[in-house]
Amino acid sequence: MFQTKNLSPKKLAAFTAIILSVPISLGIYLLEGQWLVGLVSFAVIFLGSYLLIFSIVQNFIYRKIKLIYKFINQTKATRREETYYKFILPQKSIDEVREDVEAWAKQRRQEVDVLKRNEAYRREFLQNLSHELKTPVFAIQGYIDTLLNGGLENPDINRRFLEKAGKNVERLANLLQDLDAISKLERGELKLSKQNFVIQEVIREAFESLSIKAEAAEIDFSFKKGCEKPVIVFADKEKVQQVVCNLIDNAIKYGKAGGHIVASIYKTDEQTILIEISDNGIGIPEKYLDRIFERFYRTSGGRNKDVKGSGLGLAICKHIIEAHGHTIHVRSKEDVGTTIGFTLDGRKEG
Question: What's the rounded mean pLDDT across residues 241-245?
């Protein structure tokens, strides 16, 4: 179907000129009674109307549109852009120009939204970092002030307070170490030393290192049935062990007394291995799932539990797995449990 709104300036000028010249030349023909006079009249009126209308559209309307495009690009036009404005732009219909402007506006809205999210994230990060640093520093300050104000002379107090101050110093050192680690990870400075190893052995070692904490929480550990057979992956063993330890540690922290942790290993294809750590703990509300890998982020339920840590563990895990060229994901449901999984390369020959 013919639509005038999609016409380019030239087509619009020609269409308008025809509308003007046909009835006028037809009227002249009827008055004069000579078809040659009518034909010449049509040609003259059409040509004059076309040039006039095209000139108006080109010099007034598309001149403004050219300024709009320059404003969109926000730079002095290059030779290539000037060629575009001179030859390509006049061929576009008003609708196509409108679509270009709408696409630009949409892109700018998206950029503004990203900037707003980044600014909110920056404020939240600084607030969380301040909180994580203040907690051990103020605790250490309190213990030292107590000792200096007479507690040092009391043998029942001095050793206990020094031990508590020492634990907070260790917590502060771990936080700074994790901050340094994640800073290097985000700058892409992580160097991987990949090798073939059995992933079940790394998972078993991680749980054994956390067995005392698991026993205190009355949480047991097992491999999912059918996942006991050794599976070899090609990755940085030390870094993968750090990831597994962190995931199991979180499963213990947010688990239920008498609960269990299950490790699953699957071959998704010949090149990829999927590793999952599942628990039947408190779970994570769906609205928080997209944010658990952010630095210092804790859900409301996690904040209510008496758990210690830098708040950087999952963020570090994410960067380690992504440095291997793979992804980490989470599935969870409140009061049912959480599963966090990640993929690695399978055995590499030679």
Answer: 92
In our burial notation (b when 16+ CB lie closer than 10 A, e otherwise), range 276-307 reads bbbbbbbbbeeebeeebbbbbbbbeebeeeee
Segment 135-156 shows an average pLDDT of 81
Identify the CATH class of 118-186. mainly alpha
- String of DSSP letters for 107-121: HHHHHHHHHHHHHHH
Assess contact for 214 and 220: CB atoms under 8 A: yes
Q: At residue 29, does pLDDT exceed 70?
A: yes
Q: How far apart are the first and last CA of the chain?
A: 65
Residue 281 has which token pair?
């703990």
Global pTM? 0.58
- Locate CATH 1.10.287.130 in the chain: 118-186
Pairing relationship of beta strands 260-267 and 220-223 according to DSSP bridges = parallel
- Minimal CA–CA distance to 322: which of 264, 205, 232, 235? 235
Residue 331, φ and ψ in degrees, nearest 5? -130, 135
